[in-house]
Amino acid sequence: MRKILKLITNRVTIVTFLILLQLGVLLSLAWFIPYSNTNISTIYFYVQGFFSVIISLHVVGSSSNPGYKISWVILILAFPVFGCLYYVTYHTWNIKRRKKHRITLLDDARKKVLPVPNELKSYHTKSEAYLANLGWKCYNDSKTTFYKSGESLISAVLDKLRQAKKFIFVEFFIIKEGKLWDEVLEILKEKVNEGVEVRLLYDDLGASDINYSIRRKMRKWGIDAKAFNPVKANINLSINHRDHRKIVIIDGLYAFTGGINIGDEYNNTEKRFGHWLDCGIMLEGDSVFALTVTFFENWMWDLTKKDEIIDITKYNIKNDVIGKGGVLPFSDSPLDEDNTSRNVILDMFNQARKKIYICTPYLILDNELVTSLSNAAKSNVDVRIVIPKIPDKKTAYMVTKSYAYDLMKAGVKVYKYTPGFNHAKAILVDDSTALIGTTNLDYRSLYLHYENNVILFNTSITADIEEFFTDLFIVSEVIPEDERKKKKNIFYHIWRGVLRVFAPQL
């Protein structure tokens, strides 16, 4: 009964109910308007047709991804009144002009504190040159450590948190009540008492367990906690823009990122979908400051006019370490409409000559990514993708398998992680270039979320990442051709087709 009451009173449940209520009102308008008066039915027919065509032309002429265009045009033309009203309502933004100006200032500030070299000849790939133009620097003096499981990554994070002396910055998409959160909270409380500066940033939708009572306690303890992009009870595009980043900074000396959130399933204390696989990375050296800058981008996202942009240069701690290869941390924001992570990943695929190994919980791709992987496989590049065996979301898994089957036709080998759910996000290309971070290969991560990743060029952990994939292939099963060719009933195909069309909005 307590769990039911908690679910009902949860702010996300309340907001979801209010949003569904608004959708119900839109549906009611779409249904009753044409039948409210038979004398205006003809006029209504031409008016709704006119506006549906105009809005459809606006959608087609926009700069958004073709997948979005198709899903919106189908919705608008199939259900003119509801589609038009929903599109107009959904595309309203809860970001005031003042905040947009603040975002521009933050972007300019980042480029000043992270100066990049001008010599194009020093770049490892086109991606490095591309990111340099966006203000992201490649570091050749950083040490990297790869963690091939959520358990090992969480253990390392907790260990470094206990060693903190000056400051701790933590940013997660999900924070769930449980043993891990209790342990993290106790460490943060102890560190505050020791005089350590502690900042905690969490996504308001993903970390719905952090209620008002917990926030009040954290403030009392001295933990500076902040919710990113608070959910509001009205339909708009900004509610989709979630903070999917995972960053932990300790004293400017260590920086962690990867797939884990704060929840007991991430270190397999709680079994939800079989064994939960994750991975991540720790940075030491000058590259740590790039992730510090990324943290403060979202920390200062909602500053008011009277607030000043924090001088983050004081958190740039010099730490001389010996590293190998290039380390390039970068972030991605849906507000710049640049789709940075997607563009970097696409370039990695296009540059591959020998192999492309991918680990992702979801596989919902746009046409260019599908074409790039297909062409690579047809060009004798060894393309392998690992998806979960046990899904966390059945509808997303249905779409994931449909894209997997399409890629298999081109010669891509797709594996299912047999022990359970694969939540790791990792890409390895040609034994030289790797990407570790928070981006899933789906529309949400590639187009809607705030993400962060690290590209690695010929680093000392490249061999560790390849070993991670080798071990992964051993415990995973290749999807056989007969599964792809297995006949499904017509309703399955219709439902899967609907899901694929509207995948960009799911």
Which range best describes the helical content: under 10%, 10-25%, 25-40%, 40-55%, 55-70% or over 70%?
40-55%
Number of helices: 18
Tell me, rounded to a whole number, the average pLDDT: 85
Distance between the termini: 31 Å
Strand order of the largest sheet: 9-16-15-14-10-11-12-17
The dominant shape is globular
Rg for CA atoms: 24 Å
Low-confidence stretches: none
For the sheet with most strands, the description reads: 8 strands, mixed
Strand residues, percent = 15-25%
Structural class: alpha/beta
Number of strands: 17
Q: Can you describe what's shown?
A:
By secondary structure, this protein is of the alpha/beta class. It has 18 helices and 17 strands. The strands form 3 sheets. An 8-stranded mixed sheet has the order 9-16-15-14-10-11-12-17, with helices on both faces. A 7-stranded mixed sheet has the order 1-8-6-5-2-3-4, with helices on both faces. α3 packs antiparallel against α4 and α3 crosses α5. The radius of gyration is 24 Å and the shape is globular. It starts with a helix and ends in a 5-residue tail after the last helix.
SSE order and pairing:
Blueprint: H1 2-9, H2 11-32, H3 41-61, H4 66-78, H5 80-90, H6 97-113, H7 126-133, E1 142-147, H8 150-163, E2 167-172, H9 179-193, E3 197-203, H10 212-221, E4 224-228, E5 247-250, E6 254-258, E7 275-277, E8 280-285, H11 288-299, E9 326-332, H12 340-351, E10 355-359, H13 367-378, E11 382-388, H14 394-409, E12 413-417, E13 420-422, E14 426-429, E15 433-437, H15 443-448, E16 451-457, H16 462-475, E17 476-478, H17 481-485, H18 490-501
Parallel strand pairs: 2-3, 3-4, 7-13, 10-11, 11-12
Antiparallel strand pairs: 1-8, 2-5, 5-6, 6-8, 9-16, 10-14, 12-17, 14-15, 15-16
